[in-house]
């Protein structure tokens, strides 16, 4: 029994590295008693459009999904400009049986919690070793959720922190870092411009910054998001 895997990430070199790790994996028995001989990689993609095409035309068991993909604001399809949280929500609704493992350099507790609430099966950093990746994949195939130990500790430690940035505030910051205006963010998140502005201001207050320059400087120094200039 082979299990089909698709890799979606904006960087080709990273996709190649993950493919190499998976190709060296051996099969093992699942909790259901079924055995699989190997993982079969069905395409590696860099855009939401390529991803949806692959999922539509193939029976995929596991999706290893980068949090950010190459997007195109000029395409007519809403999927062309969709990545991150909104893409995960769309995929969960469209492909409910798909096991989604998010691969991200972002380790903020709010982001991890937001992804788990959206229905992902796993959340991992981008510097994991081959043994960890194999453990992740076997875990999610057994219908369990995998989160790395240090990320889980971060979730537990921040659970009662009232100053923690909320998932929506975090998503507004992420889209700002991608260069989107408040108007475009409002359209993408299906919120009013006033609400988006309020999320931004509350996040700035929690981060103790007074203006956009200080905000972008802090986010670039923290490496929470990629600042695309």
From TrEMBL:
According to the entry, every stretch annotated as the Response regulatory domain falls at 4-141
KW Disulfide bond (keyword) present? no
MF terms from GO for this chain are: DNA binding
Q: Which CDD domains match?
A: LuxR_C_like (cd06170)
Question: Does the entry feature the keyword DNA-binding, yes or no?
Answer: yes
Entry keyword set: DNA-binding
- Please report the stretch or stretches of sequence annotated as the HTH luxR-type domain: 158-223
Q: Which InterPro entries match?
A: CheY-like_superfamily, Sig_transdc_resp-reg_C-effctor, Sig_transdc_resp-reg_receiver, Tscrpt_reg_LuxR_C, WalR-like
Where on the tree of life does the source sit, at the highest rank? Bacteria
User: Which Gene3D superfamilies does this one have?
Assistant: 3.40.50.2300
GO annotation terms (biological process): phosphorelay signal transduction system; regulation of DNA-templated transcription
According to UniProt, the name of this protein is: LuxR family transcriptional regulator
Q: Which organism is it from?
A: Winslowiella iniecta
**Taxon lineage:** Bacteria, Pseudomonadati, Pseudomonadota, Gammaproteobacteria, Enterobacterales
């Amino acid at each position: 029994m082979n299990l089909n895997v698709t890799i979606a990430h904006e960087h080709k070199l990273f996709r190649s590295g993950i493919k190499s790790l998976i190709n060296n994996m051996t099969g093992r028995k699942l909790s259901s008693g079924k055995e699989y001989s190997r993982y079969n990689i069905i395409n590696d993609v860099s855009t939401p459009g390529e991803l949806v095409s692959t999922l539509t035309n193939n029976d995929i068991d596991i999706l290893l999904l980068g949090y950010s993909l190459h997007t195109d604001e000029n395409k007519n399809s809403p999927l062309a400009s969709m990545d991150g949280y909104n893409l995960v929500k769309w995929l969960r609704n469209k492909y409910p049986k798909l096991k989604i493992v998010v691969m991200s350099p972002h380790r903020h507790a709010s982001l991890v919690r937001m992804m788990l609430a959206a229905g992902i099966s796993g959340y991992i950093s981008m510097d994991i070793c081959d043994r960890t990746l194999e453990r992740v994949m076997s875990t999610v195939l057994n219908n369990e959720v995998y989160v790395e130990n240090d990320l889980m500790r971060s979730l537990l430690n921040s659970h009662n922190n009232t100053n923690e940035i909320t998932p929506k505030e975090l998503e507004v910051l992420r889209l700002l870092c991608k260069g989107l205006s408040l108007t475009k963010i409002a359209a993408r998140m299906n919120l009013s411009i006033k609400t988006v502005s309020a999320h931004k201001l509350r996040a700035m207050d929690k981060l103790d910054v007074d203006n956009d320059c200080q905000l972008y400087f802090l986010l670039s120094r923290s490496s929470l998001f990629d600042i695309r200039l």
